[in-house]
């Protein structure tokens, strides 16, 4: 899923908070995606090439996980598939929290914001999974890449950030790309194409709320996300539950494990290099999504989807370039 949203937020705030945002972005899907990255680990040599390779590896893992998610969503209700993902996530992260810091790490200085953030993330996950039975993985992935634009807009409205005309222009080009993929008003239009947009919007809300959470450890944020998602989805299960067979249970566990591995790859990637350098390589996921979608489901992106995805990538690359320029300007003006 989606790392380019990392570039839509300035690299301020604690390393713990930035690391948690990176880890969480891919709870929705493998495109993504994904906010501010943690700096290189103290004492660890920075290796941009290694960071790029970790990020590319994560896009492969997340693409495979998305394909499994699409397969599961064709036979199980999407909320149940999301529940499988969150329960697996909780089973991984909560023991880590208890080992690292004990029950004190479950105490947040801003618990209400943590809950809102968790609701945004789980809402994003449900909407994206809901789209997969109706859309090719590549299309859903490309549309979700609108999330950095939404985060940028919400940051202006609610965080008072300043965005220059160059980044607004890049955002407009990205939106045009999304409209080309969605193609409203044409015979190729599918109403389900709006679901990844709703998913990206919900993710953007959670991402912006993350900027307001200060003082909490990364594991606290992750524990809240896992807990909120698991509780909300468990409450929905009596209304959406379908008994999975053995194959579906195995695929669900595999999906959860792949997402956990992908999260770790993302964290490692941003520990080895600058976000503005590494993040654009997240668009490689569009290649894997298209290839795996064709190999598994026989769905090949059409020329319109490829053209729209190209504009979205151009928008993301230019945003990365501008973010790098701004970072250099701040460095030399300090």
Automatic annotation (TrEMBL):
Cite a single Pfam family from the UniProt record.
EamA
Which residues does the UniProt record annotate as the domain EamA?
A: 50-182, 192-315
Q: Which domain of life is it from?
A: Bacteria
Q: Which SUPFAM superfamilies match?
A: Multidrug resistance efflux transporter EmrE (SSF103481)
Q: Which GO terms describe its cellular component?
A: membrane
TM regions (residue ranges): 52-69, 81-99, 111-129, 141-160, 167-186, 192-210, 222-243, 249-270, 277-297, 303-321
Per UniProt, the keywords (alphabetical) are: Membrane, Transmembrane, Transmembrane helix
**What is the protein named?**
DMT(Drug/metabolite transporter) superfamily permease
């Amino acid at each position: 899923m989606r790392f380019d949203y990392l570039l839509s937020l300035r690299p301020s705030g604690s390393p713990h908070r930035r690391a948690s945002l990176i880890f969480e972005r891919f709870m929705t899907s493998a495109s993504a995606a994904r906010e501010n990255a943690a700096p290189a680990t103290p004492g660890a040599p920075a290796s941009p090439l290694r960071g790029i390779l970790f990020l590319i590896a994560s896009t492969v893992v997340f693409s495979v996980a998305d394909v499994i998610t699409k397969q599961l969503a064709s036979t199980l209700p999407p909320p149940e598939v999301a529940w499988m993902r969150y329960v697996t996530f909780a089973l991984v992260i909560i023991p880590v929290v208890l080992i690292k810091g004990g029950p004190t790490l479950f105490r947040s200085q801003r618990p209400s914001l943590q809950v809102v953030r968790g609701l945004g993330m789980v809402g994003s996950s449900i909407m994206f999974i809901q789209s997969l039975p109706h859309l090719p993985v590549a299309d859903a992935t490309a549309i979700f890449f609108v999330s950095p634009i939404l985060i940028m807009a919400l940051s202006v409205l609610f965080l008072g950030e300043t965005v220059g005309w160059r980044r607004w222009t890049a955002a407009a080009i990205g939106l045009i790309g999304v409209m080309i993929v969605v193609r409203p008003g044409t015979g190729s239009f599918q109403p389900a194409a709006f679901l990844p947009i709703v998913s990206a919007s919900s993710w953007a809300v959670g991402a912006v709320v993350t900027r307001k959470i200060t003082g909490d450890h990364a594991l606290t944020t992750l524990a809240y996300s896992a807990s909120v998602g698991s509780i909300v989805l468990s409450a929905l299960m009596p209304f959406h539950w379908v008994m999975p067979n053995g194959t579906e249970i195995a695929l669900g566990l595999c999906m959860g494990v792949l997402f956990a591995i992908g999260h770790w790859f993302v964290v490692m990637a941003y520990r080895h290099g600058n976000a503005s350098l590494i993040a654009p390589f997240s668009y490689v996921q569009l290649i894997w999504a298209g290839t795996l979608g064709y190999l598994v489901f026989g769905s090949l992106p059409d020329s319109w989807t490829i053209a729209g995805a190209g504009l979205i990538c151009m928008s993301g690359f230019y945003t990365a370039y501008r973010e790098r320029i701004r970072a250099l300007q701040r460095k030399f003006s300090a």
